[in-house]
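Please produce the structure of this protein holding PMV.
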Amino acid sequence: MYDNPQLIIETANIEPGKIAWRSPSNLALVKYWGKYGQQLPKNPSISFTLEHACTDTYLEYRPKRGVDEGIALEFFFKDEPNEPFRIKLVQFLEKMTSIFPFLKQLEFTIRSSNSFPHSAGIASSASSMSALALCLCSLEDRFFGTLKDDTAFRQKASYVARLGSGSASRSIFDGFGLWGETPIVEGSSNLYAIPYKHEVDPIFHTFHDDILIASKGEKSVSSTAGHALMENNIYAENRYRQANQHMQQLLSALKTGDLEAFGRITESEALVLHALMMTSHPPYILMRPATLSMIEALWTFRKETKLPVYFSLDAGPNIHLLYPNNIKPQVDAFVQSELIPLCENGEYIADKVGSGPLEL
Ligand code: PMV
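Below is the modeled complex.
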């Protein structure tokens, strides 16, 4: 859709330069799990962008000295050269050369760092791939002036981010982002995410997401392998049907401000995601004992207090505790007394619905 052989620069005219973006991670409420073709989702998903869990990416460029056609890249993660990441990025940028042919004409140094600890088990692919996609679109706009319109810019950035990591497509927007075709949202697409701005009760923009670190260990199975295992999962087709139903129910809860329905769907989505992992061949379990202890403590707290506080899970063991700002004091007291003692080294990250990526 975005292949454009005309995006070639007069190398004689290029001054070395720099572009930088800070881009957030996001938390999916209806989950994307299962894909086909070139990073296309088996079902629509919706997430909110986080405020604090971000990647900063600085991209420096200069005209290429050599004549080879490949990608010339130096890569530093937290100021250290990182060869495994560099190789992944070179492979990604090579795939991007039909969209951005000028990538072959330049040499790059990319410096990246996350605002959250690498070991905290927070998915960094959404923030890092969206930050890189934004840098590439800014670069195109700088050379060719082709992406002046904000909607066009973000649509292309979301498309490119998706090719790096599906969930990254949704990080391009502030608030809620929706990715994947659904008949109930006009303009929705499998190719890129769209901002979901209309019809969200303001209470959801006040939501907190406390990320409680149940375990900092590296994931035993990557998301890429997890998506692939859906292909032979006996529950897959029912899951995709359920995701579409959940999308409809969740959008209606967002519209009416129905916190109870929001919580029911969100928690079901988290548990189903992990149930799909447990029913894959081979099966695997990413929840840890502390994950279950926290869910039980939360359910007891909710039963006793009737407060609208719910959990979600990403593809990892950590609990995302979701609640509106108007009950923060009560939830804070509960987190301090009952959940933090269950966290590895007492670690958690207080995050919330975010304001979207920022050009640095
Ligand atoms: O973007 P990927 O390929 O890393 O997949 C991530 C999928 C989940 O985080 C588990 C769910 C989602 O929709 O973000």
